[in-house]
Structures are given as structure tokens and as C-alpha cells.
């Protein structure tokens, strides 16, 4: 049956590959999904048609928006959902011996050909309560899908949102480097974080792209390597993610490289060809040393430092010999201002003598605002004193336990950082551990169902619904509205009442200038319904950028952002409250 489904997708131009992580199998679910599946089967209820909504209840990180990610992996799981004999044997082992053989025959034949999946496009900006996915299908299989689908959406969306938030604070012009692999929650945490930070954290304006093209042309003319595109990417240090997803990689070097050097005598091959290949410097170490001497004699630099650390200088020189076209040095191993910066500048100017342009420095400790400003002053003084055009703009990367708050603090203090390396706080989503996605039954055999709770925000919204985003006159999204499946869709220019799902007094009329239906078919099962393509990661990222840019600024700000309105139609409102009263037992006072 699975073969049939995949063949159908083949016809529409694309085979759905298996999940990226081979651990994503039909067994990646909670035991209770199998026990419920057995009980459904035993009661001959397993084929009853269920509708589940996957959604979250609250935006993460104290914000008012979320980036939806993980859909492609959900569809990959669904398209390839099939138990192996080995897996069936294992399920037989873990279930009580009283479970009948027929259930295992049922599992053997199970796939997602009777399941339909409707979803919001991956990379969309999304809001609480509005279904991200709607799963329709036989109840037993839909339940088995609950855990893996929630798992695949939860972290992906959380970390994409975290990346978008870090980008928002850093500003469009800053380069962000994701350094988190060593701190991520295991290998999948690391790979997923890299992929979804790329999805959510990119920012580029057309002006920046044009500038990049111009700077690339300039670089070619000057025979300089294209080492530093200036448009703002999220770059990654995670090599496996680079290979898997084609996302851009970048990195610097560590303290170990610096401290592994004891003296310049360790450098054996000291020769370096000029950038244009026309000449060769036989002793680059001496060239570097002459620059250190010039600095020591310079009026404007004298007094900032005395003797720099020679083992650090040896490490920088050696790194420059290895990477003359992309030299970037970590300058805080011994003393940033008294050693790291002058040593870097000496190597950078020696490279400049040979036609190379150093990329810059990385600061990994201390007061990053202060040190970046001091480093910039030093670069500018060097530019002026030695007439090296552009040297004052040498790149400054900062790292060390950065997060939204520290980026914000740096902005407030004033700094000269051009790019940030961010690890732990970004990839582990330190500020919030989980998005809290849920998967709730909203209909069975065409009968709407509701889950009640003391906490009103936890009451589920029943029915197989449709959802729409309504745009206002200024082009911003105004409100998301959910309607019953059979209600007519909202129309451009037609006034519609949008009601808070649970608060009677909160309601507003909206005359939409644009209406966008949110849920599209991504997995039609064996039905003939047309389905959406799964776009490449780059397209998903582009959608994300566009959507983030289109949001009203007050929804996006960090401090007290305005909540985006999520509503239901008047008819759905009435129905929710009818069902609520119907299902809630009336209390008795004694
Ligand atoms: N100007 C600044 N304003 C606010 N926070 C900053 C500023 N500069 C650095 N930080 C943050 O302050 C923290 C400093 O960390 P910590 O106290 O461990 O010192 P450190 O610089 O790492 O020292 P060392 O590596 O020498 O032990 C980091 O989280 C860093 O991101
Ligand atoms: O955002 P972060 O979690 O700080 O991730 C980046 C850090 O990781 C690396 O060093 P590491 O922390 O391994 O060693 P260090 O703290 O001794 O520099 C790097 O030098 C950064 O400091
Ligand atoms: O490339 C780097 O500088 C890097 C990579 C991972 C972690 N810290 C730094
Ligand atoms: Mg650290």
C-alpha cells in the first residue's frame, strides 16, 4: 500500500524520502498509542474516522509569534509509515500476551494511505490555538502518529522562533553564527537546531544583496577571495548539517589553537605567495615582526601595549600562512588589548603587504561592548597611521554565552560587533524548553468533540475547521479566524464578526482586504485531492522572512508585545459553547 502511495506522489513529480533522522520510525511513539490502538481494534473501532488538530497554546519566549517548522519531516514520516516484521515482533513482546494475533496482522498492513494531512505552509508565522496540522484518518493510525508529529513540530518550531528572535535583536545587518553543536541536546538536537535556525534566522534585504554582489565583483577585481558576503545569513559551524541541508558553513578557531603554540620557532615553512601570485615573501614571520616593531614605534599606538605574547603571535602567523585569504583570529587567549589585537593587526598588515585582506577578530570573553569599541579604535588608528584603506572596518565577531538579553544589552550600551557566534542559548532554547504542542481529537465519525478543562485556555476548539488569515488595509495580517468546515469562507470587502473563542465580550468586525486560507492539503492519502509540494529549505526560509517582515511591529517587539488576535466565527463560537454546556456536568450544591 505504501508503494502505491509513494507511486502517486511520484506521478506529481516528487518521491517523498524517508525522515532525515533514521530514528524516526513508527516505533517513535508512546506505548499508550499502541495500547489504545489495540483497544480500538479489539472494539472494532479502529477504522472510525477521526480528525485531530495539532496546535500550541502559547507563543514561546514571552513573545507573540511563532515560526512553524517541521512539516516536511512530518510528511516524510507519513509517506513512509510502515512497520517492519522486526518492529511488529517487538510490539508483540511489549504488549500483554493476551493480545490477539489479528492485531499484529492489522499492524502489518497499516500505512497512511487512508490518512489526510492538511497543514499551514512551513515557515509561516503562526499563532496559538490555530491548527498547524489537521490529521484525518482511521483513529488508531492517527493516534499512533500523535507523538512523532508533535515531536517533529515542537522543537523545530521552537528553535526556528528562537533564531528569528535572536535575529530580530541582533538587527538585520549583523551576521549570526550558530555555534551550538557541542551544547545541543544530542546529535539530533544539534542537526535540527542548525536546520531550523537557518530557516528562522535569515534576514536579507535587496539592498544588502546588491551590496554583496558589488563587493563580490570588487573582490574579483582585486584578486581577493570572496570571504565575507555582507548580507545577513545565519551561518553554521555544524558540518554535518551543511552537508545534509546545503546550509552555509563558517567558523573561526579555538583557544586551543593559540595555546598550542609556544614560540615562532615552531613555524617551519615561512614562505607565502602574494595574492595575485606575482611575488613571494620568503619569511612571512619576519614580515609580521617588522609590523609589530612599527606599531611599537608608532605615536598613536604607543602606550596601548608593550611586548605582545610571542606564542600567540606565532599561532596567528601560522594560521595566516594556512588561510591567507580568510584570516580571522581569536584574540582573547592572553590579553585582548595588550596582545591579541596588536598581534592580529601585525599579521593582518603583513598579509596586506602581500595583497590579502584579513577578515577580522573574534572576542570570546570580557566586556564585549567595551572591547569591540576599543578594537575598532585600534583598527581605525592603524588605518590612519599606516594608510591602509578600509582597515578600520575589519570585522569583529563576538561570542561567549550570548542570548537575546546580552545582544539587547550590547545594543543599548553601543558596540562595534559585526557578527555574533551564538551556541547554548540558541540551540538548546534555554529560555524555554518546549513549545507545548498538543494533538487533540476534534471530531469522530463526523461528530464534533471537545476536551474541557478548568483552565479555559486548555479547552479544545471542536469540529473539523477551516482557518483563514485576514489582512487589513495597511497590508498587515489582522486576525486569524477559524470557522466550521461547512461555513462559507470570509470574503474580501465583506464584514465578518471575529469572536474570541472563549471570552464573550471580546469581538470585532473585520472587513478583510485579503483573505488567505491557512490549511492546505499536504498528504491526500489515496484520495484524488491535489496536494501542495514540499518546497526546498531555501523557499521555506524565504517564506519565513517575508512573513516576519509583514507582521505589524508591535506584535514583534520584545517588551510587552501586542497579542495577535486569534478568533472564531460567530457560528463556531455558538457551537463551542453549546457543546461545552452539553458535555460539562452540572454541579450540585449541598
Ligand atoms: N557589555 C556587556 N553587557 C552585558 N553582558 C555582557 C557584556 N559583555 C559580555 N557580556 C556577557 O557577560 C557574560 C560574561 O561572562 P563571564 O562572567 O563568565 O566572564 P568571561 O568574560 O567569560 O570571563 P572569562 O572567560 O575570562 O572567565 C557573558 O554571558 C557575556 O555574553
Ligand atoms: O554561546 P556559547 O554557548 O558560549 O557557544 C559558543 C562558545 O563555544 C566555544 O567555546 P566553549 O564554550 O566550548 O569554551 P570556552 O567557554 O572555554 O570558550 C566558543 O569559543 C564560544 O565561547
Ligand atoms: O568556529 C568557531 O569559532 C566556533 C565553533 C563552535 C563553537 N565555538 C566556536
Ligand atoms: Mg563558553
Structure description:
- The protein has 590 residues and is α/β, with parallel strands linked by helices.
- The protein has 2 domains: 11-170 and 436-583, nicotinate phosphoribosyltransferase; 255-358 and 360-393, TIM Barrel (Alpha-Beta Barrel).
- 40% of the residues lie in helices and 16% in strands.
- Strands 15-14-1-5-3-21 form a 6-stranded antiparallel β-sheet. Strands 7-6-13-12-11-10 form a 6-stranded parallel β-sheet. The chain has a 4-stranded mixed β-sheet with strand order 20-16-17-22.
- Helix 13 (336-353) links the parallel strand 10 and strand 11.
- The chain is elongated and about 90 Å long.
- It starts with a helix and ends in a 7-residue tail after the last helix.
- Mean pLDDT is 92; it is low at 204-212 and 219-231.
- Bound molecules: adenosine-5'-triphosphate, 1-O-pyrophosphono-5-O-phosphono-alpha-D-ribofuranose (PRP), nicotinic acid (NIO) and magnesium ion.
- The site of magnesium ion has 2 residues, from loops.
- One of its GO terms (molecular function) is nicotinate phosphoribosyltransferase activity.
- InterPro entries: Aldolase_TIM, NAPRTase_C, NAPRTase_N, Nic_PRibTrfase-Fam, Nicotinate_pribotase-like_C.
- It is an enzyme of class 6 (ligase).
